[in-house]
Amino acid sequence: MNKGAQTRETIIATALAAASTYGLEALSIGSLAKQVGMSKSGLFAHFASKEKLQLDVLGAAVRHFIDDVIAPALAEPRGEPRIRAFVDRWIRWSQAPYLPGGCVFLATANELDDRPGPLRDSLVAAQRDWIEALTTAARLAVEEGHFHRDLDTHQFAYELYSILLAHHHFDRLLRDPETEPRTRRAFERLIRSARPGSPSADLT
Q1: Is 0.85 surpassed by the pTM of this model?
Q2: Number of domains within the chain
Q3: Is residue 30 part of a domain?
Q4: Residue 23 domain-assigned (yes or no)
Q5: What secondary structure, in 3-state letters, does 18-45 show?
Q6: pLDDT in tens, 134-149
Q7: CATH number for the domain including 165?
Q8: Which CA distances in Å does 18 have to 12, 27, 115?
Q9: Is 203's pLDDT higher than 60?
Q10: Domain coverage including residue 185
């Protein structure tokens, strides 16, 4: 990697850490330049616009998420073991040292949810891919016989995603020391409800 590429990666890593805490809109060319020891014009030359910087930060977050959550979980056996790996890896991802404010996708969701444009499109695409991965994992769990055959896999993914959203809220906003145990108990209830012979299976 040449010096220019290294500098660019340093800027993106610094901006990603800031975005996880303060959101994408709070990113400032001036403050980032100061943090990485560059002039504003020198930093601006790497990205041409604030929006380009923001898009590159989201892209870096997606790559981290794939490397740290998706790819390792996909190496696990199909079905329930893979779903457990997704959850374990996501909790670790939300505590990663390069994300001091937690999951950057959730940190930026509120500021982008009603703002059409490339940034929102990028965030929505990343989250839809994640939800689809959870849905597919649930479908494979049905095929493997780990979950009952009438399971609504989209509903399962919705509820699992909701548990992960609650984890972030209770951990980062409420600072609840019981967040992870509560998250894991909620997850175990969801898993039990999806297994063959569960009361919910009998009601379908």
Answers
A1: yes
A2: 1
A3: no
A4: no
A5: HHHHHCCCCCCHHHHHHHHCCCHHHHHH
A6: 999 999 999 999 999 9
A7: 1.10.357.10
A8: 10, 7, 21
A9: no
A10: 50-203
